[in-house]
Amino acid sequence: MVSDNRLVVKVGSSLLVNEEHLTPAYAFIHGLLGDIAALRKEGKEVVLTSSGSVALGLGALGSDPATAGVQEKQAAAACGQPLLLNVYKQVANEYGFDIAQVLVTLDDLENRRRFLNTRNTIMRLLERGILPIVNENDTVTTEEIRVGDNDRLAAKVAQMLEASQLLILTSIDGLYDRNPEEEGAQFVEKVDDVGAYLDVTKSTSSLGSGGMLTKMQAANMAQNSGCTTLIGKGEIESPITAILTGDRRSTECVAQPNPDSSWKVWLTDRLQMAGSVTVKEAAARAILRKDIGVRSSDILTLQGDFNKGDVLHIYDEEGHEIARGLTNYGSKEALLMASYPDIPVSETLGYQASEVIINQKNLIILEEHHLPWDQPLDDKMDVTQHH
Predict the structure, then answer these.
(1) Which of 221, 248, 265 is where one domain is finished?
(2) Is 215 within any annotated ligand binding site?
(3) Distance between CA atoms of 51 and 12, rounded to whole angstroms?
(4) pLDDT tens digits, residue range 175-186?
(5) N- or C-end of the chain: fewer Cβ atoms within 10 A?
């Protein structure tokens, strides 16, 4: 059930950090937390998803953001996290409330049990009147195992907490129908179908890891759970409330009127692809009719090094994504079973087991409001060569 008084605010590095000196933007942070204090007095529950730790840490290390590699950014995050949180804590104290840091990794959001544990932690902080500040734990994540942008991370938090609104504060005033620097670019006030704007959202800022593309992807994730997303410019004066009241323009990505269940939202809105399977055409049709799950004999190719309990993306022979579901097997077992479909599973694996890779009850058919993922081209394992 969506909570009307719960709001997730995402703030990008370009607003929190002085780009020239890589130091905290104190004036903006004062405006931000002053606004949050006002919202809290109105009875709103606010969660902040904050970037900035890596950028601040690069300043402390004397590193150039344009050339810093993964290890340099991990070290920078370790330096920058206490710097950023110290600023937040000092300013929040002036406004009479306390903060808490919640550092998460990709697995905390993609693994169902850890997802629920993270939710419980944030909910307990809200119950105690403390502002949770969520960020990815960049000190331990690498390119292969990271969310990569705080826009989609914020959308995951909004889904997790069943928030009614996600506010993404950035350095421009919202979405345009093309690059806003181009002549004739038109501001987009309202978005129902995020997919219509994906091709015009490809650039990123110098400090941040996400551009308008990740904001549109985040908005789609929020829409699916019944959460409206507002994308607007983070001004020092009333950065949140001026957008919420409509005094400062923003792009509104409208929530789905009939949102998916929390289970369906978690299963379909992924941050990273653990693995995928391509199924035969007859099986694809049966899956879409909701007649079957995914059996080992239906599989043509597998991709990815996945584990039991991971969510797999399911494609038809033409490369269209049709569904996502929880796998009963890791990639090694699934490859063995799919490669030798005529041999009993007990002989292939050495123990009694079902040939069903994904149970029908753990499989969700993708609908029009879900953004499909392109089928991966690398590391495909063709099981037909063993037949």
Answers:
(1) 265
(2) yes
(3) 5
(4) 988 877 788 889
(5) N
